[in-house]
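Q: Here's a chain of 143 amino acids. Please give me its 3D structure as tokens.
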Amino acid sequence: MVRYLKSSLNAPESLAFSRFRSRFRSRFTSSSSEDEFSSHSPRQEEDLMTQLIQLQKSSGEFQWGNAIEVALDMNQDQIKGANPEVEEGVWVTILVICFLEKKMLEEKELWELVVDKAIKFIQGKVSSQKAEEIKEAAMKIVR
């Protein structure tokens, strides 16, 4: 066990992790206060993306959180009201996927694996045809 841990600690890091680490570091070494406080700064978008990603459970499902309401510019009741009669976790998960794909495309390398996990969750819950129907409804909400 100890050998395995030592060897995995010495293993070369993946390219994706390397990119994530460099972006993570750059977020905290930025000296520009303008980026921090402008209304649509890249840093705020990245922070929203991070908050969304933190809402993902180990199963791949996304749970409710304030970040979803902020991302969609809707309150929880409005989001639930638009649900096309599917399990809440499936609806929220598809909404987050649509948001990331539509609004955070330039950051795809950071959220791509998160979405892959979410898609596996959805595949275990609904048919691919039903998932497409739900996604169509979700894309109408993501502005």
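Q: Can you summarize the key feature?
A: The chain has one domain: 41-141.
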